[in-house]
Amino acid sequence: MARPGAWLWLERRRRLLPAVLLLLAAVIDFVTPEDVSAAALYAAAVLMAAPLLSLRGTIVTGVCALLVDLAMFVHFGRHRSPPEASELTMVATVSVIAVFLNRLLYHLQAQLSSARDIAVAVQRAVLPDPPKASGPLRFAARYEAAQADAQIGGDLYAVVDTPFGVRCMIGDVRGKGLGAVRAVAASIGTFREAALREPGLIELVERLERAATRETQQPGSETELEGFITSVVVEFSRRKREVRLVNRGHPAPVLFLPDAVRYVEPSRPAPALGMAALAPGPEPVDTLAFPEGATLLLYTDGLTEARDERGVFYDPVGRFAGSRYACPDALLDAVLADVHRHTGGRRADDMALLAITHAHDSA
Fold this sequence. Notes:
Mean pLDDT: 84
Low-confidence stretches: 221-225
Helix content: 40-55%
Distance between the termini: 56 Å
Largest sheet: 6 strands, antiparallel
Strand order of the largest sheet: 1-2-11-10-7-8
Radius of gyration: 29 Å
């Protein structure tokens, strides 16, 4: 298997490929008997120029292919022969087709760029960056879609500064397509509105439960959604160095302490949002200390389900034990760089990360 560095080297030099093919065709024509033709390589060079070069570059490649091919016929004394007319006509025809393909690809790329710009605008509207700070808390978020050209999918996060404390949410809509994006927008909108109104964390989660049930049971949504949303909702106290969490079927957050790194497993498992009928009892709320220097990492399963070429899943606790980071941005940059190394750059699922650090006490 080629290493990522080798692919990067080839990617940077791909525009040279048409010239390399032309040179190879000329060498083959020159060193082989006159009845051996490299016409296929001339045509391949011109066709390769269409997606890699500009319109001018494609035309120049076509003209060069014709001139080099003509020069070979002159060199071997076969100028004005029937094979010459046939081969040059073929190269000229391929050159015209290459120019057409170049224009077609240009317009398709322009449409793709426009769609990408729209997707970026949608992402910024639905998933805006969290505030940089609130009192002693510092925030950072990252989002990576599984598809390189996609900008938003079924993962979500939100941070709201409320009279009851700073409240955060991370979630994963189990589904795909426009239905998942619609559910993301509905969940974030409900969270932002309810976080400012509901005094208790349990009441806030109940509002999210009702919203998830409505969204996943809409007519036609079953074709795109699986009927639930995994989520972790957290609340940071303004008066105490602690954080309260409700985990609804979501991967356990990671707590970075000055002397340890560990998963924050729920005291009692709870079903995902939209599946309250399966809940065995009251909403489980866990409280843990959140001292100065601590960082809580919330993430979606795109992180822990990332696998290397041997199929080994990514384990943030095992890979970051003993690590210390001054700010949440530095931590997220390190996590993303590390998971990319682990997977070799492959992505199978969307991935959202939200890190909250207790930097220092309020004055």
